[in-house]
Design a protein that fits this description.
- By secondary structure, the protein is α+β, with helices and mostly antiparallel strands.
- Helix content is about 40%, strand content about 25%.
- It has five helices and seven strands.
- The chain starts with a strand and ends with a helix.
Amino acid sequence: MTPIYANLDKTSFGEAATEALRQVHDAIGLMPERVLKPAVKAGLLILKKAAKANDWKGKYGTGLLKLSLTEKVVYKAATKTVTGMVGAKRGMKRAVTIEIKYTDKRTGRVRNFTLQRFEDPAKYLHLVEHDVKPHFQPLLNIMHPGTRGKGFLGDAMDLTMKAVEARFVELIPPLIRQQQLKN
């Protein structure tokens, strides 16, 4: 997924957002990160809500991805760029129990396998978003067939980009006024 960014020269949005950035650039004595960070964060909240609505649980879904989605806004002083990202929160571990029924290739018997472990959604978000190639599972002694990616974050971004841009543009003038009053 492409992160959303806002810089004093360019943005990942359209012409209206570029005009809003010109307003930030033209404001005298203004610290741009104090205007851009809240505006980008407001847009990210719209994106995160849409991603949670699009959450794909899969065959053995636990719903952990939905619980772990978070937004992050970073300001880089060297380039004067504010970047916003939606992704899985690191370190959010939960106990997950997965019950799998499979057919043993050697004996032809149907077997049950219960696996309980602590999962960190940040470690497998990319597997849900993109494809998983077929691979061998030594613990189960079976071949995993692979899965097709369910790009719920990318889909959410495609669906909400205009709303995110509108919120960004809407917040810039009040944030500029607010910062000018503080100075």
